[in-house]
Write a structure and sequence with these properties.
The chain is α+β, with helices and mostly antiparallel strands and 129 residues long. It is built from two helices and six strands, in the order ββββααββ. The strands form two sheets. Strands 2-3-5-6 form a four-stranded antiparallel beta sheet, covered by helices on one side. The N and C termini lie far apart (50 Å).
Length: 129
């Protein structure tokens, strides 16, 4: 069993590539270091995506997220880097990463980054009676 963090994101084939559906993953234990002070920053990450051919494997995602624990990063930079790495690994139709950082000095920070495949159009919402 791996006991070390890893930047290697593993994927598996989407079992239903013919359908648009949303995968939502909540990651409540993200940590990195403030690049100015070296103090830990804590966040809950909310990942939402519409897969195309590949889905992210959750154990590798856990080890990938763990890899940021001892790295200094600004909130904006780390959110966009994680999104870029996930997009490179899975090539989704759509992906959104919301990073809700805990309070620091009386300030909460939330960073939202998105990717949309150029050829993808989201389906129209269905209004139910």
């Amino acid at each position: 069993m791996p006991t070390r963090p890893s930047k290697q994101l593993e994927t598996f084939e989407n079992p239903h590539p013919e359908r648009d559906y949303t995968i939502r993953i909540r990651i409540p234990e993200f940590t990195c270091l403030c690049p100015k002070t070296g103090q830990p920053d804590f966040a809950t990450l909310h990942l939402e995506y519409v897969p195309d051919r590949r889905c992210v494997e959750l154990k590798s995602l856990k080890l990938y997220i763990w890899s940021y624990r001892d790295e200094g990063a600004f909130h904006e930079a780390v959110t966009n880097q994680i999104l870029d790495d996930l997009v490179a690994a899975t090539a989704p139709r759509f992906m959104r990463l919301t990073a809700e950082f805990n309070v620091r000095g009386g300030i909460y920070t939330t960073v939202v980054a998105e990717h949309r495949a150029p050829q993808w159009t989201p389906p129209s919402p269905v209004a139910l009676p």
